[in-house]
């Protein structure tokens, strides 16, 4: 058969490559971003109960209303917003499906989409498949601050969408109030849709707060926010997330969503609808993961890696430039094979694979795993 690939340059993701290598080599896997501990048994019991109670057929297309109500209540309470559960919330098969559906609903051939790099690897393929043109803006290590003047210069009459991600994967940085005010200024008077990936919204450190676009009415009016129950509640394999947006945008989203997925796992939705009624289930995550971050950083303080502490997410970037000048992909593989600790090289997320000699380590693991990994890293 003869055909032309719509994604000719896309191969196996670096997450799959490094996790497979970690398995083959018997290495400690601090590469792929999934928690190394179980979700709350109470939540698991709620899913089981929902199955026993007969919630095993299709859920409503936008999601179980009780869950959408709890999502809207959570966001509106935390960020002083006003999302309506009936028309402005959709439950999705994880944040990745939400992102793909948003792009599919709005991006036409030759529309331009601004992406801040390093960027999570699902963004650009979604744009490419739909015929859009990616306009990349590279952030610079080690602080990865956004140059908003560069963003402003990148906007053209063809710009249809802009991606942001805070807290940011892979760098662990966050956008602050000044960033949001500058973003609001830049987008004012345009028809640009803002896609805000906020899957790590409940993992922010050192007393700082998550600056959701939901806090800012001017941004909220043009934005989709995507979120992940999997990242929040340690069950990435359930593939449960949601998106919120103003009614007019959400109507277009649901036109695609109903033919893309239609609805997602019904028992899990019933469980989350009950579980979210106790805010402590998500509000305590900041402290939980800060303890993990602080433990990991304390354990590697005598290593040769240079550190800028992560401000959010459960990832820590480590600068290895004082150890070797090898390319990061090669060093990550050697670290896995020779030293038995797997990480993610970050050049693969950068424009032209620019190599800042930075590796990403996931610290969402039990303390014993972090101690074993840190012992190895300190001996390199």
TrEMBL record:
GO terms for cellular component: cytoplasm. One of its GO terms (molecular function) is kynurenine-oxoglutarate transaminase activity. Keywords: Aminotransferase, Pyridoxal phosphate, Transferase. Residues 28-375 form the Aminotransferase class I/classII large domain. Its cofactor is pyridoxal 5'-phosphate. Gene3D superfamilies: Aspartate Aminotransferase, domain 1 (3.90.1150.10), Type I PLP-dependent aspartate aminotransferase-like (Major domain) (3.40.640.10). InterPro entries: Aminotransferase_I/II_large, Kynurenine-oxoglutarate_AT, PyrdxlP-dep_Trfase, PyrdxlP-dep_Trfase_major, PyrdxlP-dep_Trfase_small. Belongs to the class-I pyridoxal-phosphate-dependent aminotransferase family. This is Aminotransferase. It comes from Dokdonia donghaensis DSW-1. The lineage of its organism: Bacteria, Pseudomonadati, Bacteroidota, Flavobacteriia, Flavobacteriales.
